[in-house]
C-alpha cells in the first residue's frame, strides 16, 4: 500500500465538500461520500488480501480520471496499463491501457492536413471488485473472473504495469503463497516457520 498523494486528498476533499472554498460538509454530502467510500475501501481491502501490496510497484495508482491517465500513457508502448479508481464511476476500478495499433489491413483514414498527430489508441474499461470475484466491463460485454490477478493474466494485450514494469514480474511479486507452498517452506526451513503466514 502507499500513502495518499496530494492529488488523492484533493479529490477526496472535492467529494466531501461540494460547496467551493468551504470546509463545511453537509449531512447529505457526507452520507453520499460514505456510501462511495465504503465501496472504495471494500475493493482496497479485497486487493490487499489477495496480494502482498507492500511491493514497490503500486498496484492501484489512486484516483485518476481519463485525461490524467491518457496524459500518463501517451508516450508509452502498446500494452502499458495502469489500474486506478474511476472518478466518474465511483467505487469501480478502471484499467487504462495503450491498445495495440490497428492492423495494416484495417482501413484508417489519413490525418487531415494541419491536424495534430494522432497518439497511440488509449482505451479504458471498468472493473467491479467484490468478495465473489471481479467483473470486467469492456466492449462487447462483461466477463467474470475469480480475482483481479486472474483478470490481468487473462488479458494478453496488457503487458507492462505503468510506467514500464513487466506484468508477470509484478504479479509474481504480489502473489501470496498457496497453503501447500507455505507447508513446503516450513519443511525446508523450520526456523522461518513462524515468519510465514497465509491470509
UniProtKB/TrEMBL annotation:
<dbReference type="InterPro" id="IPR036860">
    <property type="entry name" value="SH2_dom_sf"/>
</dbReference>
<dbReference type="InterPro" id="IPR000980">
    <property type="entry name" value="SH2"/>
</dbReference>
<keyword id="KW-0727">SH2 domain</keyword>
<dbReference type="Pfam" id="PF00017">
    <property type="entry name" value="SH2"/>
</dbReference>
<dbReference type="GO" id="GO:0007165">
    <property type="term" value="P:signal transduction"/>
</dbReference>
<feature type="domain" description="SH2">
    <location>
        <begin position="51"/>
        <end position="178"/>
    </location>
</feature>
<dbReference type="GO" id="GO:0003700">
    <property type="term" value="F:DNA-binding transcription factor activity"/>
</dbReference>
<dbReference type="InterPro" id="IPR001217">
    <property type="entry name" value="STAT"/>
</dbReference>
<protein>
    <submittedName>
        <fullName>Transcriptional repressor</fullName>
    </submittedName>
</protein>
